[in-house]
Amino acid sequence: MSAILYLAQPLDPAGERHTLHLVEALAAAGAATVLAWGGIRLPALAGVELAPLPPAGGLMAGGHWILDPDGQPVDHAWKKRRAAASLAIAARVRPALLLLDGAAFGSGAFRFELKPLLEIAARRQPRPLIAVWSPGGTPLPVPEGQRAPDRVVGEAEPAAAAATLRTLLGETGG
Fold first, then answer.
1. Contact between 153 and 119 (Cβ < 8 Å)
2. Domains of the chain
3. Is 147 helix (H, G, I), strand (E, B) or coil?
4. 70-122, pLDDT tens digit by residue?
């Protein structure tokens, strides 16, 4: 089975738990899963390749400013390192399915990272399926200038979301 790359940025403890349960469910089902992780704590997950990103501690009120692990706004150099790390991971993994974290995708705060990643993914051959996981099916705004995903996966339960993602991966021939 082809690889799934999940670019995850936990913004709260509940989102972190859901993300970790989802990647564990994917790995348990036999999907080659790589977790590009922007969280502060590095999780230990059986069967999942962990690819750390420069960590973010959360978002400032209003959701447009990213905070570092010390609670300070990130600077331009941090954004450059973060975008470069995401692009390098995607180039190495060459996923059949690129899965994005719904909270980070919809906030627009991570546009500096997601816009180039999505543009390059759209030009790659074979092109990966691009999906966003938004537990509960919450409609996501597509930030201005950013590509829309091919699919929004809305199952709130990680096991159900994993089943949908495996089905999507099968439909792409991955």
1. no
2. 4-171 (3.40.50)
3. coil
4. 999 999 999 999 999 999 999 999 999 999 988 777 778 889 999 999 999 99
